[in-house]
Structure to design on (628 residues):
């Protein structure tokens, strides 16, 4: 064989080998574990004198939030799905919606105000605004008002003139204008929170703002506004029956006897709520997007039960972990369902949700003794799930999952960490505290004795929340913090820290400033700790000298996954970095070797089984075969 032919054959064989390797190394789509959308709000509406159900369905499109409107005929289940601006597009989050008396629905999708005309069955107005509506109300003159997060801006829309305008800012620092009411004198009232409750009046014409809450008594919480059956507006500076009830009129607040006041049913609803009363007297009993069933009682008292259908990309995956039985377990959010993937059979099991958790999730999970353990958002409640027993939605005499801890808002309302210590029976949960608060606590839970040691933020690191945690070979804990307050609290620190803690004494031994929030940590084979920050900076930390040895920008490889999920170590001690756009290997000296680009951006994860790394892209589960 001549040399020229030999070179050609070698080139062909090389190309074939490269093609084979390239194909073998491509991430593989496994499927959607939970094929349902979340109820964002349900309303009994009337179209041409006939009852309909308006249900807002929430899913994702290419890692962006997407909401659609379902108009369901409660007599036969016939359903039409309305997309905005189109089906194949994300449109942002939806929190509050109004059924106005002009036959229109009003809401915000992301940073856009929209109107849906029920009679025309079409989106008939849209305009950009400065945030997401947290509350709506309709004034006696027909004008629509809404307050936005995060700037607490009051907006006005006139359905007659089609004019949308910004009225003014309801509060200079608080972010949640959660309640609104408008009187006949041209004043709008807002109940605001969450770090410091407030109750304000604003003149819709002039923008004049009057604070009705006593500045000296403001605290964590929110003001509340009510609509009275007598047509007046009422409010409380603090959302408790112990707070005096006030008549809100012409920009002023007057104390009244609560026993003599009756509140009206509002025509606006918060996220996941339901407006049950049809204009003709019929009653909506329920709408479940999971089971796709609806029921109502018509105006003559007859009950109707129907099934319906709709299109969805499924619920977004929050977390996943490897069970002791070799299956992959995970949680979705909005709605929260627990699910299982069997790698041997390539099948999914959707267990369902937990009513107490609702639209929340298990931000991270761990396996212990053939069970799955984790703490949940939004209440910090911890559960243990036994896959060998029937799933009961966490209810009944023998609940499965079973509650093992319920932690207060000032300790753990938004968990991020779930870590099983090397002793094999202590689980640690940590994360953010509740609305209006800053700094989160930590829970050491002994799964053998069912006892817990709870640390507040003040006992741990004031102003910080631990959102990444790993145990070192010497038994010490390395924790990474966030300084953010996602529930509307006021920041108390300026930079995140990586700290060392003794798990036996629960005392912090050292702190080293990093800067941006530390989103993930892992232990390298040489004992160093590698971390990645929220803004995609990778750093190497020496726990012996307490010094940062390296800090590099890895933004070109994508953003981080959910807290605690971007770094993972296999049984051989190899550490992998999973970012939105790629999977890489991190050497002990910090050298990064990209293994693959991702066809769809990674959003959560991660676990490794039999040399394959599992991760999620929005509502879809993927796996990638790691190089051997």
């Amino acid at each position: 064989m001549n040399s020229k032919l030999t070179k050609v054959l070698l080139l062909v064989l090389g190309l074939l080998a490269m093609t084979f390797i390239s194909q073998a190394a491509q991430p593989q789509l496994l499927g959607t574990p939970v094929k349902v959308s979340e109820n964002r709000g349900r309303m009994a509406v009337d179209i041409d004198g006939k009852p309909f159900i308006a249900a807002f369905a929430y899913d994702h499109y290419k890692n962006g939030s997407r909401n659609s409107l379902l108009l369901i005929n409660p007599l036969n289940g016939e359903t039409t799905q309305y997309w905005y601006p189109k089906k194949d597009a994300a449109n942002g989050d939806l929190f509050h919606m109004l059924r106005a008396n002009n036959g229109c629905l009003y809401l915000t999708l992301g940073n856009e105000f929209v109107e849906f005309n029920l009679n025309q069955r079409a989106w008939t107005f849209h305009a950009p605004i400065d945030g997401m509506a947290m509350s709506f109300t309709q004034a006696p003159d027909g004008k629509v008002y809404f307050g936005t997060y995060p700037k607490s801006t009051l907006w006005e829309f006139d359905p007659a003139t089609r004019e949308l305008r910004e009225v003014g800012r309801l509060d200079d620092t608080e972010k949640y204008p959660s309640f609104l009411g408008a009187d006949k004198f041209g004043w709008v009232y807002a109940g605001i929170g969450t770090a410091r409750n407030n109750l304000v009046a604003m003149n819709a014409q002039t923008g004049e703002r009057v604070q009705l809450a006593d500045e000296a008594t403001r605290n964590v919480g929110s003001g509340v506004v009510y609509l009275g059956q007598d047509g007046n507006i009422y409010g409380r500076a603090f959302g408790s029956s112990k707070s005096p009830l006030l008549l809100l009129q012409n920009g002023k607040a007057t104390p009244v006897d609560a026993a003599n006041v009756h509140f009206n049913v509002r025509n606006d609803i918060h996220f996941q709520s339901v407006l049950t009363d049809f204009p003709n007297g019929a009653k909506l009993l329920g709408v479940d997007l999971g089971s796709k069933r609806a029921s109502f009682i018509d105006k003559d008292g007859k009950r109707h039960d129907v099934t319906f259908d709709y299109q969805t990309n499924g619920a977004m995956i929050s977390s996943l972990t490897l069970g002791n039985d070799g299956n992959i377990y995970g949680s979705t959010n909005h709605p929260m369902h627990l699910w299982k993937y069997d790698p041997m059979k390539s099948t999914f099991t959707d267990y369902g949700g937990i009513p107490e958790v609702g639209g929340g999730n298990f931000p991270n999970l761990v396996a212990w003794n053939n069970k799955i353990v984790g703490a949940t958002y939004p209440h910090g409640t911890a559960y243990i799930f036994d896959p060998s027993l029937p799933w009961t939605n966490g209810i009944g005499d023998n609940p499965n999952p079973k509650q093992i801890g319920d932690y207060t808002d000032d300790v753990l309302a938004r968990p991020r960490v779930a870590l099983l210590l090397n002793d094999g029976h202590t689980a640690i949960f940590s994360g953010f505290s509740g609305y209006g608060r800053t700094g989160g606590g930590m829970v050491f839970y002994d799964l053998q004795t069912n006892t817990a040691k709870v640390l507040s933020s003040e006992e741990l690191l004031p102003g910080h929340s631990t959102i990444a945690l790993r145990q070192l070979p010497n038994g010490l804990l390395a924790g990474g913090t966030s300084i953010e307050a996602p529930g509307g609290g006021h920041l108390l620190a300026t930079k995140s820290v990586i700290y060392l803690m003794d798990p036996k004494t629960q005392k912090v031994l050292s702190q080293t400033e990093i800067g941006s929030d530390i989103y993930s940590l892992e232990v390298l084979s040489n004992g160093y700790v590698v971390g990645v920050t929220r803004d995609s900076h990778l750093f190497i930390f020496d726990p012996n000298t307490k010094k940062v040895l390296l800090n590099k920008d890895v933004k070109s490889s994508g953003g981080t996954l959910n807290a605690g999920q971007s770094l993972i170590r296999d049984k051989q001690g190899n550490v992998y970095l999973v970012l939105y756009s790629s999977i890489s290997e991190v050497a002990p000296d910090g050298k990064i070797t990209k293994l693959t680009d991702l066809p769809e951006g990674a959003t959560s994860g991660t676990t490794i089984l039999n040399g394959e790394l599992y991760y999620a892209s929005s509502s879809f589960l993927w796996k990638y075969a790691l190089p051997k």
